[in-house]
Design brief:
This protein is of the alpha+beta class and 189 residues long. 13% of the residues are buried. It has a four-stranded antiparallel sheet with strand order 3-4-5-6. The protein has a two-stranded antiparallel sheet with strand order 1-2. It is built from five helices and six strands, in the order ββαααααββββ. The N and C termini lie far apart (87 Å).
């Protein structure tokens, strides 16, 4: 900085450098970065078929994870993040679950400017529930097992009677008779 007098300060900065350090220059840079991100989002948006295939796989994985221990929202979030990188095990969730899901639920894919969304419609959630979105070439699930309708039937026999209990006992298979100190394939220990 050159000081020519007590009240007059001059700088040897170029016009471009002054523009980049101004508020308007920073705003233009920020908007340029946003424009580039939006263009990349448009170009890498998953196709309708990719979105449908990934969401069907994510829904089957969500059905696999449903067991006697119900998780909270954090568990569902962690499971959904894991579903991005894994595939469903076809031996755990058979074709009958797929048929039941398709019978009572409908998966719809919607196209937006920069991304796609997937909604599940059924008789309980007629307005639909968003179960995933696709952006930057990835399909990110937000599915929860409670979003799906897998069984249907009457809740009461008549008007003032109690609810029909339709709990299904899970088949746990055959367990060996494990006793105390029975390990390492030696039944005598």
């Amino acid at each position: 900085m050159n000081q020519t007098g007590n009240d007059n300060y001059r700088t040897n900065e170029s016009v471009g450098n002054m523009f980049l350090h101004s508020c308007l220059g920073k705003l233009v840079i920020f908007l340029g970065i946003l424009l580039i991100l939006f263009i990349i989002a448009i170009l890498t948006k998953p196709t309708d078929q990719e979105m449908r295939d990934e969401m069907n796989d994510n829904i089957m994985q969500c059905m696999e994870m449903n067991d006697s221990i119900r998780g909270d929202q954090i568990d569902d979030f962690v499971h959904n993040i894991g579903f991005i990188f894994t595939k469903a095990d076809t031996t755990k969730v058979g074709q009958e679950w797929r048929e039941v899901f398709d019978k009572y639920n409908r998966l719809e894919i919607y196209n937006h400017s920069f991304f796609r969304t997937a909604y599940v419609y059924n008789n309980i959630r007629t307005e639909g529930t968003r179960v995933g979105f696709g952006i930057y070439g990835m399909v990110i699930p937000t599915a929860n097992f409670n979003d799906f309708l897998l069984r249907i039937g009457p809740m009461r026999r008549n008007y003032n009677q109690k609810l029909i209990n339709t709990t299904i006992e899970p088949d746990l298979g055959v367990n060996p008779n494990v006793q105390e100190f029975h390990y390492k394939r030696n039944p005598d220990d």
